[in-house]
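fold description:
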Amino acid sequence: MTLIKAPGRAPRCAALLLALVLVPLAAAGDDSNADVWDRVEHHTVKSGEIDIHYVTLGEGKPVLFLHGFPDLWYSWRHQMAALEGEFRTAAMDLRGYNRSGQPKRVEDYRMPLILGDVAAVIEDLGAPITLVGHDWGGAIAWRFAMTHPEKIERLVILNLTHPKGYANVIANATEAQRQNTQYARNFATSKPDGSPVPEGLLNRYASEGEKVAGHYREAFARSYWDGMLNYYRANYGQVAGGGEMPNLRMPVLQFHGLKDTAVDKDGLKNTWDWIDRDYTLVTVPSVGHWVQLEAADLVSSTMRAWLLARE
């Protein structure tokens, strides 16, 4: 579910470091208002035995953002800045990341537990909310909206196709699609080995300047590398397997950067058949997987207009 393609163990790390350097990142301009790092309010809630950290900015109806792999709440800085005038934006660190709890076992990252983390934050914010997810955050958001529709007023998904669409691509993959998703199968079948966060990940945002890069370096340094990979180990078979699932009962806005190879655009087919309310699809031909960063202005302005039209 990312642009990272890193097979093996020692070779996996080398390939991962190269991939992390080559992945295109934010193409947005230098918007000082988007650096919300020092303006957010920090919160911690209990989810079972672990703490979940999230931040908020602005006032109004809550909009909760879920990041993907490998990332943290700060991935949503542009969107939080754009929405804070009308909404209470909130972004959480998924378990294993940054300031959230970091359990060690693979089974501690199963989808029901992660959905419980989201539920704990929503309870703290007050339902119903708008839920927004990218990559693994998108997979979590799709599932949460299906299992807890009463808590979700609107759903926004970025570069993670509907579970049925994603599974259809995996089941009927072309050779190129199979190669592009091999990294996920490698991650899912790898074994935890206690490796630290790779150096390439710590330096991934160097091109964004020291301010942004420093925030990521600090956050990734206190994250749990095996915890990040445990999302694949514990859940990828279910995500790729499809199966029966209920239609969505809330309006859905979906963004997809068409240059994304890991989450193929073919998975967008028939999404409208699985949503009972209005469905808005925004494709962005010029960008890849990290659409909220690579096309930050377009995503932010479109999301804001879409949300306000449904107030």
Strands lie at 41-47, 50-57, 61-66, 87-92, 129-134, 152-158, 252-257, 279-284. The longest helix spans residues 225-241.
